Amino acid sequence: MNIENIEAFVHVLHYGSFNKAAEALFLSQPSVTARIQSLERELDCQLFDRVGKQVLLTNKGKLFRPYAEQLLDTYRKGKQQVRQTQAAKEEVRIGCTVSAAQYLLPLILPAFRRRHPSLRLKLTTATSEEIGARVLAKELDIGFVRKFNHPGLNSAVLYEDPIRLYVHREHALASNPQPRIEDLSLEPLLFFECGALDWLRIHRVFESQGLLPNLILQTDNAETAKRLLLQQEGICFLPGMSVRREEREGTLVPIGFPETAGIGLMTSLINGQGENEAFARSLKEIANQVLSGSDPAYRIV
Question: pLDDT tens digits for 179-236?
Fold first, then answer.
């Protein structure tokens, strides 16, 4: 049954006129008449009687009326629901760690927006565990996390950011690319706790040499650690992405610490199984393009 024919029937019923119904539907009167005739052929009965200038329902038309109105109402509600769902899909909800929000997303979101100009983006920061749980609960569409494995999620490693020991360019160690661990033990140490490199591991390196590190600050915020480093408050282990600009400008200098060679901070992209696949694929492609072109030190997976 053609919904346009039902719509014409309800409009003629409402306006009591083929002409007024045609105006309301932005159709010609013959088009409305043709739709009513098509519906009558399908139902094998006459729905309207013309009495002078009046258009009246026949008995069969009266029987059909409530069903036609219900059909049209259901169709309109369904159409509205679909449109609302489509509109909701124009917003992509992204969850990410604080580090990803500060250093990764500003690199890839501009290109993502150029690919999908009609999208609105909603960005939320949280821990990797919280983001994973919210993607599973369909509260977030995409997540950028350090590490999160779950059978209900797709997970793809975007990159591994090497963690290195940095000093300010005016620091005495800046001219010593391979300092002794004894020298490092005397320096005030700012420690960024990132999961990939934990404090216990560093402590054991010093302890194995009969030394103790001079820890003055332990934080889970890379930006805090970096700003203190820029104020020459100590030396610090940091992921390369957090100091890209400062290293390029020569403000911060990496120095050798073999014990952390090969250690990197991984960032993965997650999405629900079978959900938001196109957006996830687009973000991964952009991340690979941007990161592989920005610094060869980043290991793109």
Answer: 888 989 999 999 888 766 667 778 888 888 899 889 999 998 889 999 999 999 999 9
Distance CA 279, CA 111 (A): 12
Q: Answer yes or no: are the C-beta atoms of 263 and 161 closer than 8 Å.
A: no
Q: Which two three-digit tokens encode residue 69?
A: 């109105």
Q: Could you tell me which of 164, 169, 296, 161 has the C-alpha nearest to residue 232? A: 169
Report field, pTM of the whole predicted structure over 0.85:
no
Phi, psi at 18, each rounded to 5°: -65, -40
Contact status, residue 238 vs residue 163, Cβ threshold 8 Å? yes
- Is CATH 3.40.190.290 correct for 147-301? yes
Give me 71's structure tokens.
């059909």
Q: Output the six-digit token pair for 113.
A: 């927006």
Classify burial at 293, counting beta carbons within 10 Å of its beta carbon; exposed 0-12, middle 13-18, buried 19 or more: exposed
The residue extents of the domains of the chain are 3-88, 147-301
Asked if 103 contacts 242 with a C-beta cutoff of 8 angstroms, the reply is yes
CATH topology of domain 3-88: Arc Repressor Mutant, subunit A (1.10.10)
Q: What is the pLDDT of residues 59-72, one digit of tens each?
A: 999 999 999 999 99
